[in-house]
Amino acid sequence: MKKVDLRQKVLSENEKIAIANRERFAEAGTFVLNLVSSPGSGKTRLIEETVKALKDDYRIFVVTGDLMTENDAERIGRHGVEAVQISTGEACHLDARMVDEKLLKRKASAYDLIVIENVGNLVCPASFDLGEDLKVLLVAVGEGDDKPVKYPPMVRASEVLVITKTDLMPYTDSDPDVIEENALRIKPDMTVFKTSSKTGEGLEQWIDWLRSQLTAKKPKPHKP
Ligand SMILES: Nc1nc2c(ncn2[C@@H]2O[C@H](COP(=O)(O)OP(=O)(O)O)[C@@H](O)[C@H]2O)c(=O)[nH]1
Ligand SMILES: [Mg+2]
């Protein structure tokens, strides 16, 4: 009897849509980030800080994914940028079709930067390309310095590591340098930032890097 690999089929369907999404973003010159981490590592908070820093210079759209609630989109929407929630129900990740559906009514060319906050989970989102330019992995101080070596597929899938909540260092036995070393053991060419959304530490470097990426994708953005 012939065995059919259903998982492979689902992934290829996702890949097709991801390729179409990526082409659309490339045509529009829209830079797209896909933020992945455990629940509570500070994705929404980092997006809030990013939006505050960039919203006067760039047209930004945020897509947030969670199983339930519109909380994150509401938090980000308060800063005056467009934010929509995808409630995945029981799904542990966003897929390319969900992102495509959220963008159908909004032309990608209407935005310079799209930030996608994936469902909090260090496993499933690694396997699903959404058509983004880069996956950004967040690991918070205090969540376990060995997280990168426990979840290597997520590290391999990500180009950037943001070590968050550095302000918590005095209260934990966690060391951001150890988190960084563990990630670089899996993927030596990762770009690494160490940030605190509470004190602002390291945010300037993150924002400067993001500006350089935006300029590389579209040299002359339309101001909002
Ligand atoms: N002390 C501190 N708390 C933070 C920082 N970033 C996020 N938090 C808090 O950590 C909790 C989870 O953050 P959130 O952004 O919702 O995480 P998400 O689930 O990854 O989106 C919230 O109470 C945040 O206010 C930080 O840099 N320092
Ligand atoms: Mg969140």
Model description:
There is one protein chain. The chain is built from 8 helices and 7 strands. The chain has 224 residues and is α/β, with parallel strands linked by helices. It has one domain: Rossmann fold. The longest helix is centred in the N-terminal third of the chain and has 23 residues, at 6-28. The protein is globular and about 50 Å long. Residues 43-44, 72, 117 line the site of magnesium ion (MG).
What attributes characterize this protein structure?
alpha/beta, Rossmann fold, binds guanosine-5'-diphosphate, binds magnesium ion, 224 residues, globular
How far is it from the N-terminal to the C-terminal residue, by CA? 59 Å
As a percent range, the share of strand residues is 15-25%
- The average pLDDT is 93
CATH architectural name: 3-Layer(aba) Sandwich
Rg measurement, Å:
17 Å
* Strand arrangement, major sheet: 3-2-4-1-5-6-7
What is the approximate shape?
globular
CATH superfamily: P-loop containing nucleotide triphosphate hydrolases
Give the helix/strand class: alpha/beta
Major sheet description: 7 strands, parallel
Compile the SSE list and pairings.
Layout: H1 6-28, E1 31-37, H2 43-54, E2 60-66, H3 71-77, E3 82-87, H4 96-103, E4 113-117, E5 134-140, H5 147-150, H6 152-157, E6 160-164, H7 176-186, E7 191-194, H8 203-217
The chain binds guanosine-5'-diphosphate (GDP) and magnesium ion.
What is the compact description of this entry?
The chain has 224 residues and is α/β, with parallel strands linked by helices.
